[in-house]
Design a protein that fits this description.
10 helices; 295 residues; nine-stranded mixed beta sheet; UDP-N-acetylmuramoyl-L-alanine:D-glutamate ligase
Length: 295
């Protein structure tokens, strides 16, 4: 599978240090770990964090061809505070270098000649006009393949109107349980259950699939009329940063392999739980390690 991943590369700043992250970067890194080609469209600054980010991306196998270096802003930074349960709260600094990501006409021509199987995008990146325009240009230029929308809401980084603009581009939607409520509120719908939400969203926006993560309660998947639920995986949470991104990558991997829907849910669930049990968003792990976890 070949994926084009548009969005932020940034440093998560914890009390005990900094770790490279950003949901799109995490997604790309986990896809690379699973053996896929993941090309990140982003940007870093002309600074030490930018240099280290490019080095780390290479170490993790993330394609750097479309990661620009810009002088217009510093490499992205997010301050992360963890609560007692290991759940993160974020303070995002913008403008950041990733706001100046871009694809040239030559880049787009090359991608059209060898189009990606999946295109990943999220709401945080699209909050600013320049990245949003990049998304729209990319979708217009590359109309084929799956388009994976990881809603990934952050405080003060989205509007209901933006969500409704981004949804029609997607073929696969990933949300958590809280984000279901936000999307229903944006659309003016009454909440009548997660399965009803998934079926309604699929009909309204032309989605093939909807994934709903439920933290310790597992996940639910809808795909072309089929609905499955997977129970939670009991792990000791170190920090939950990147767990949802790992879930997304595992789901894309499992879908590309043509696995049954229940198997996709079980695998994505385990990978998300495994990452939550480790420090940072992109720790080392193996598929065997994920499958060894018991529901």
């Amino acid at each position: 599978m070949r994926a084009l991943v548009l969005g932020e590369i940034l440093w998560d700043v914890f009390d005990d240090g900094e770790r490279l992250g950003g949901a799109p970067f995490n997604f790309a890194a986990q896809l690379a770990r699973l053996g896929h080609e993941a090309l990140l469209v982003s940007a870093v600054g002309e600074d030490e964090r930018g240099r280290k980010a490019l080095e780390r991306a290479q170490e993790l196998g993330v394609g750097k061809r479309y990661i620009r270096t810009t002088r217009w802003a510093d490499t992205g930074v997010v301050e992360v505070q963890l609560n007692e349960a290991g759940q993160p709260q974020y303070q995002i600094r913008r403008p950041a270098a990733y706001d100046f990501a871009g694809l040239s006409p030559e880049d787009l021509a090359g991608l059209r000649s060898n189009p990606p199987d999946w295109i990943y995008y999220g709401s945080l990146f699209a909050r600013e006009p320049r990245p949003k325009a990049l998304l729209e240009k990319t979708f217009e230029s590359l109309p084929e393949g799956e388009r994976f929308f990881d809603v990934n809401l952050r405080p003060d980084s989205y509007t209901p109107e933006l969500l409704l603009e981004l949804l029609p581009y997607a073929t696969v939607l990933k949300v958590n349980a809280d984000e279901v409520w936000e999307l229903e509120r944006a659309a003016g719908d009454v909440h009548d259950g997660q399965e009803s939400f998934a079926r309604r969203a699929a009909d309204r926006y032309g989605l093939r699939g909807v994934a709903i993560t439920r933290a310790e309660d597992g996940c639910a998947l809808f795909w072309e009329g089929e609905w499955v639920e997977a129970p939670g995986i009991a792990v000791k949470v170190h920090d939950a940063v990147g767990a949802g991104d790992a879930f997304s990558a595992a789901l894309a991997h499992a879908t590309s392999q043509g696995w049954p829907l229940a198997t996709r849910a079980a695998f994505a669930n385990r990978v998300g739980a495994l990452i939550a049990s480790k420090a940072g968003a992109t720790p080392e792990w193996t598929e065997e390690e994920a499958w060894s976890l018991e529901a």
